[in-house]
Write a structure and sequence with these properties.
Layout lengths: L17 E2 L3 H10 L2 E7 L4 H16 L3 E6 L4 H6 L7 E6 L2 E7 L4 H12 L1
Parallel strand pairs: 1-3, 2-3
Antiparallel strand pairs: 2-4, 4-5
Length: 119
Amino acid sequence: MATDARGDASGGSIDEPVSIESEAHLEDVTSKHDVVLVDFYADWCGPCQMLEPVLDGLAAETEAVIAKVDVDEHQQLAGSYGVRGVPTLVLYADGNQAEQHTGALPADRLRDLIEGYTE
């Protein structure tokens, strides 16, 4: 249940994950919003599927924007970010990449990660 972030230029929160459609779209989202957590995922990935409801919840309850990149649809984009395994989570703060983690992280750890950049 992803949404398109193009209509929200306020820099505020978006309550559900945003599907990224291109490198330009990802750059647009990360530059317009203070904190963005990018999930590089694949539909066939079990840990990615387990992480999806966690990310949906974080999108609704935190100030961060959750962006999703399907690595099968956007192989070149994933490659340019050094994605070697899925899920890979990349956190942007103020338009700059701040952290990158490979593998599913528990909800509380992700929440702490996000809150460390939103306070």
